[in-house]
Amino acid sequence: MDTTVPENAELARNYTHNGVPSIKIFRNGGKTVHDYKGTRETDGIISYLKKHAGPASLEIKSKEDAASLIDEKKIVVVGIFPELCLEKIKNFTALAEDLRVDYDFVHTLDAKFLPHGGPVDKPTIRLFKPFDELYADFEDFQVEAMQNFIEETSVPIMAILDDKPENQAFVNHFLHSPGDKVFLFLNFTTDLDLFKSKYYDLAASYKGKEANFLLGDAETGKRALEYFGLNTDQVPLIFVLAMDGTKYVERHVQPDSLAAWLKDFKDGKLKPYLKSQPIPEVNNEPVKVVVAETLEDMVFNSGKDVLLEFYRLGCKYCEEFAPVLDEIALSFENDAHVLIAKIDGTENDIPRERFEVQGFPTLYMISTAGSLSRFEGNRTKEAVIEFIQTNRGSPAPSNFAKSDLTVSEHAQTDSMKDEL
Length: 420
Hints:
By secondary structure, this protein is of the alpha/beta class. It has helices spanning about 10-15, 40-50, 65-70, 85-100, 145-155, 170-175, 190-205, 220-225, 260-265, 295-300, 315-330, 380-390, 400-420; strands at about 25, 30-35, 55-60, 75-80, 105-110, 125-130, 135-140, 160, 180-185, 210-215, 235-240, 245-250, 290, 305-310, 340-345, 360-365, 370-375. α7 links the parallel β9 (about 180-185) and β10 (about 210-215). The two termini are about 40 Å apart. About 25% of the residues are buried.
């Protein structure tokens, strides 16, 4: 689906929250939608779909079955049913169907076939994992309880981001897990031995406290650092992405200061970090440049009605709209109550609780009355000017409406001449 086609806009907003390209798997007539998390290569996609086209859970009837179906480098969820319980079997099967994209599911009547753990005498879920205690048991077969157990247990105390493919799945689990996310980026060649044990102990002390930990090699995680506006020159670096989306960072951190810094974060003593472009030294063009660090002052506390464009470098629609936005800004250059501005939506943190930006360019009007209005029309000069005049909180100058009408009338007259 081409997300740039106007008639696909609603579908794009519903299904491309993490950007494009995005691959989704639809099941049960569209009732269940999963993100595809495999490789982007042809063979990988084919293999992935073949695997997930069969039964959601396969049966283990022998130790040989267990050896072939339980990959000790992956997370595998086993339903053990030494006694018949239709409701629990039904719930387990439903869960396997729903989560099969993320985990491998198998079932058996006898725990003696399994590589780890002792016998059980009642229905039990046993989750195998290649880290920490290697397996965990659970006996509540309510679907939500099982799902919570799997999500919590399948996240390592400390995920490792490096160049080993077998670790990537656990990094993905870390990224999609609920709770605060703590990243420690190091130069693995020089800093790993200094930090690893202290960081693991710190992660273990927060187990069960809605916090997940990742230890990353700075070179392997270079793109992740850049995404957050950070770079490899700042490591050792600890970074927190809180549940509410707020971010915190400490550059050039020392091993012995990790615990105290994280406690300050939990106690609410740290100042949030904003990914922001540098504040422009000169900002005298008709369309003013806003960055994350100036958003509050220039937009929300400016005392003006502000039209703010969210754009992205390289976006052809943004490039086409740029001269139109310049003309709009010139139209308001003598109106001291109106500011026309723009912000790069990929290089600056955007407060998601205020703005919904699914594509570029996106226009918002922030009025002096405190209201936010999103522009949904055709991006013509006349349409945007009318939008500003309709949604502004300050009164429009008496001569503006007249001059704007004249421009519009000239444009209509010229258009009519062209048609004739």
